């Protein structure tokens, strides 16, 4: 038997399968999706088995044998192998990168396989002799002749296999004991323990037997030796910190029932669930997943970033208990690995997670749901630069199951597809509790300046905050910029202090009197004199969340204020802790970046203040208006969900159409107008855009390669824009030039694949993705 293997090397020259013979002792164990060790040149390399075949195009006598089996079971299903092949072609990415996306980081490290013998009576005579009575063993190549037996013993629970990952995170396990058979022993206490375990008729924890019942380790050890009781070792899965909420049963309204009634669970339809903020989309998700679980199938729910949606996660845990697994970037290596294992072993049936959770190794997948489907965080910047929505659509088609895209502000691409009957449109036009959306007041900050108010807090907002505090209600203030001041400038020579690695202005952070780069992490002390001209006339320009916190503390001295941004949520569970404090009304005012824009449902929040509604409007991208509208509408939706609320939008451009539409919650009107503009300018959804980024530490080399690509493509039927400096042109001493190609049909850009296949410039990194 021959295995086609992809070696785990990210290199163009080896981005293909290599044939290896499967040795006889591994023939029934090596499967599609297995990881193996193979000889590759002078090295031993890990590889993924992509397929099995009887013969090879190469002489069998010249093929090398697989050296070892890395895992005793295949890590990847045939579905995930096929998905990797799709990603390889679709995203112009190396196959090894695509495959590694699908397994937890812990398994890409060096680790050992530990076996614990639970029932030695099941072992063959040869295997018993080989292990010489050991109860715990770490297996290596010398155990290869016994791998088939080991696999069958694991299936019978006669052996437990643990993965010992070489990190500072130790594996946790529980030891318990169960009755095996009556034996004659001396000592009343040991006979009592046998009788107790016989009556219990289930495993009992060692801690209970020793601490609660008072038996000794020596007594337990003797009974194990006499085979009166069996010692059982089980992994204790690490559990991420999740809020605890009651399982609240909600009566669905007619809109929710109608949406659920339209879902066909036996077809690969895509549904756009368009529901205003607070309309009960989560209840629709949970009901749909309940139906899937009742049919012994599994589900994936994607959210933009799970650590930013503690309330939603808690609600799913309350509803589905231990059937829920959580995957997100804030988990430790051990937590993420343990959650992945629970999924793979079938202990978890519903996966709630961020972008990468779309690769969850679920069997019998029954539904995929993407919440806040408009969010750009579903796109990965690094290679492979995939979009989780595209992957979800692929898995939906592969498994013939429904895909639900939910949002209060759907992406215009998906809204257009739904309106043209490519997707099925489901609508929740009202809040579930029938409360109206909060009224918005637009404040012209130009008038505030004319009145002498140079504060970022308008007089209208100040009065509204004061009124909320008097009523013992809560306030959320939104400013999508962290730090104290956004830049530091010399008033003598005009010098703006920039990051030496990124050519971006450094942000001033008052709490430690430092300047930080939010792109590469560079940090330096705040200067007392200009580094260019030596002047002491240093000015801190702009406003961030830290400065707002400082100003509010002076305005409202009795108010309890907390801040939620990347600086205050850098530790593992800090986001959940801040959420809990605000939910329990341990704070009156929450100041935050876009972290506060989604996933929040606080009963006492009756005021949302948007301190600078203009901030996202003028980003140099065709979809800047769409992104700005979504952000304004999402953060506005935090107000008045249970009590009458209001929104105050501060702007220097009150006549801007985006702000006007967002202030009256007019998504459809905004969408229709924006779609007309997109059609005129040949932008998505009326075209597709491919983005090629050329990155190099040598600016001219990146520019030269970008120009070379344009000459190579040489197609007058395509709209080619660039090369142009990227928005973030220099990051970590790497320069980036972008080229954009607008097209309609994939066949129009086949030459991109030719270019990618021939690309061989070690000085310039090429990244290809979708806009």
Structural description of this entry:
By secondary structure, this protein is α/β, with parallel strands linked by helices. The strands form eight sheets. A seven-stranded parallel sheet has the order 14-15-13-16-17-12-18, with helices on both faces. Strands 19-29-28-20-27-26 form a six-stranded parallel sheet, with helices on both faces. A five-stranded antiparallel sheet has the order 2-1-4-3-5. Helix 11 (333-344) links the parallel strand 14 (324-327) and strand 15. The longest helix has 15 residues, at 699-713. It starts with a strand and ends with a strand.
Described by the principal axes of the CA atoms, the overall outline is globular
How far apart lie the N and C ends?
44 Å
Q: Helical stretch count?
A: 22
Q: Classify the beta-strand content into a percent band.
A: 15-25%
Largest sheet: 7 strands, parallel
Let me know the number of strands: 33
Radius of gyration: 30 Å
Low-confidence stretches: none
Provide the helix percentage: 25-40%
Mean pLDDT across all residues, rounded?
A: 89
- Order of strands across the main sheet: 14-15-13-16-17-12-18
Class by SSE composition: alpha/beta
Any descriptors?
alpha/beta, 22 helices, 33 strands
Task: Please sum up the structure shown.
Helices cover 29% and strands 24% of the residues. With 771 residues, the protein is an alpha/beta fold.
Chart the SSEs and their pairings.
Blueprint: E1 2-7, E2 18-21, E3 35-40, E4 43-53, E5 68-69, H1 78-90, H2 95-100, E6 111-117, H3 125-131, E7 136-139, H4 147-155, E8 159-165, E9 173-179, H5 188-200, E10 204-205, H6 206-212, H7 217-225, E11 229-235, H8 254-261, E12 270-275, H9 281-294, E13 298-302, H10 310-320, E14 324-327, H11 333-344, E15 350-353, E16 365-370, H12 388-399, E17 403-407, H13 412-419, E18 424-428, E19 439-444, H14 445-450, H15 459-470, E20 474-478, E21 487-490, E22 507-509, E23 514-516, E24 523-525, E25 538-541, H16 545-555, E26 561-564, H17 574-583, E27 589-592, E28 605-610, H18 624-636, E29 646-651, H19 657-663, H20 667-680, E30 688-696, H21 699-713, E31 719-731, E32 734-743, H22 750-758, E33 765-770
Parallel strand pairs: 12-17, 12-18, 13-15, 13-16, 14-15, 16-17, 19-29, 20-27, 20-28, 26-27, 28-29
Antiparallel strand pairs: 1-2, 1-4, 3-4, 3-5, 6-7, 6-8, 9-10, 9-11, 21-25, 22-23, 23-24, 30-32, 30-33, 31-32
Helix pairs in contact: 8-9, 18-19
């Amino acid at each position: 038997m021959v295995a086609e293997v992809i070696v785990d090397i990210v290199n163009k020259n080896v981005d293909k399968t290599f044939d290896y013979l499967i040795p006889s002792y591994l023939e029934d164990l090596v499967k599609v999706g297995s990881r193996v060790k193979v000889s590759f040149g002078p090295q031993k390399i890990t590889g993924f088995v992509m397929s099995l075949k009887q013969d090879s195009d190469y002489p069998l006598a010249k093929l090398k044998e697989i050296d070892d089996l890395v895992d005793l079971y295949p890590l990847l299903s045939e579905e995930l192998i096929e998905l990797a092949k799709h990603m390889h072609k679709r995203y112009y990415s190396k196959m090894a990168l695509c495959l590694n996306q699908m397994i937890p980081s812990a398994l890409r490290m060096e680790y050992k396989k530990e076996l614990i013998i639970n029932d030695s009576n099941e072992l063959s005579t040869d295997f018993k002799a080989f292990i010489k009575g050991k109860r715990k063993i770490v297996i290596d190549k010398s155990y290869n002749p016994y791998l088939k037996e080991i696999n069958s013993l694991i299936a019978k629970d006669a052996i437990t296999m643990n993965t010992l990952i070489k990190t500072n995170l130790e594996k946790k396990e529980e030891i318990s004991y169960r009755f095996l058979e009556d034996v004659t022993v001396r000592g009343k206490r040991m006979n009592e323990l046998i009788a107790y375990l016989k009556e219990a008729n289930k495993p009992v924890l060692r801690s209970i037997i020793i601490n609660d019942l008072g038996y000794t380790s020596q007594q337990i050890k003797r009974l194990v030796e006499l085979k009166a009781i069996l010692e059982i070792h089980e992994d204790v899965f690490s559990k991420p910190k999740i809020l605890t909420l009651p399982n609240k049963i909600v009566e669905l309204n007619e809109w929710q029932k109608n949406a659920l009634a339209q879902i066909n669970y036996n077809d690969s339809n895509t549904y756009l669930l368009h529901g205003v903020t607070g309309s009960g989309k989560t209840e629709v998700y949970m009901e749909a997943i309940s139906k899937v679980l009742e049919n012994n199938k599994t589900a994936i729910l994607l959210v933009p970033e799970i650590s930013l949606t503690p309330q939603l996660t808690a609600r799913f845990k309350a509803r589905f208990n231990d059937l829920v697994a959580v995957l997100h970037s804030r988990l430790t290596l051990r937590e993420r690995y343990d959650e992945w294992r629970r999924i793979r072993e079938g202990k978890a049936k519903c996966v709630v997670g961020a972008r990468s959770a779309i690769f969850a190794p679920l069997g019998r997948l029954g539904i995929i749901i993407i919440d806040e489907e408009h969010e750009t965080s579903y796109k990965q910047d690094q290679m492979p630069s995939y979009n989780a929505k595209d992957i979800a659509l692929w898995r939906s088609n592969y498994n013939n199951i429904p895909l639900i895209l939910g949002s209060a502000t759907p992406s215009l691409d998906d809204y257009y597809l739904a309106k043209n009957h490519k997707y099925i449109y489901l609508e929740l036009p009202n809040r579930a509790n029938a409360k109206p959306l909060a009224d918005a007041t637009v404040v012209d900050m130009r008038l505030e300046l004319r009145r002498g108010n140079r504060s970022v807090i308008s007089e209208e907002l100040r009065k509204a905050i004061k009124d909320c505090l008097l009523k013992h209600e809560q306030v959320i203030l939104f400013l999508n910029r962290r730090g104290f001041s956004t830049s530091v400038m010399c008033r003598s020579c005009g010098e703006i202090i920039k990051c030496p690695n990124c050519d971006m202005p450094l942000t001033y952070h008052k709490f430690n009197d430092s300047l930080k780069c939010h792109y590469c992490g560079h940090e330096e002390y705040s200067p007392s004199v200009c580094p260019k001209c030596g002047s002491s006339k240093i000015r801190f320009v702009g406003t961030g969340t830290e400065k707002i916190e400082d100003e509010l503390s002076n305005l409202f001295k009795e108010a309890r204020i907390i801040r939620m941004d990347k600086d205050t949520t850098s530790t593992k569970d800090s986001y959940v802790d801040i959420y809990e404090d605000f939910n329990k009304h341990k704070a009156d005012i929450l100041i935050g970046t876009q972290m506060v824009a989604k996933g929040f449902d606080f009963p006492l929040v009756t005021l949302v203040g948007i301190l600078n509604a203009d901030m996202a409007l003028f980003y140099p991208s065709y979809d800047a208006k769409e992104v700005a509208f979504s952000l304004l509408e999402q953060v506005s939706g935090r107000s008045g969900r249970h009590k009458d609320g209001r929104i105050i939008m501060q702007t220097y451009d009150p006549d801007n159409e985006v702000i006007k539409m967002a202030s009256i919650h007019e998504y459809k009107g905004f969408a229709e107008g924006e779609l007309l503009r997109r059609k005129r300018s040949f932008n998505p959804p009326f075209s597709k855009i491919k983005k090629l980024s050329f990155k190099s530490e040598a600016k001219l080399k990146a520019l030269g390669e970008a120009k070379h690509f344009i000459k190579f493509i040489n197609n007058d039927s395509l709209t080619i824009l660039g090369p142009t400096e990227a928005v973030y042109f220099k990051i970590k001493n790497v320069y980036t030039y972008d080229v954009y190609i607008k097209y309609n049909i994939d066949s129009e850009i086949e030459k991109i694949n030719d270019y990618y296949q021939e690309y061989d410039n070690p000085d310039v990194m090429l990244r290809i993705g979708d806009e």
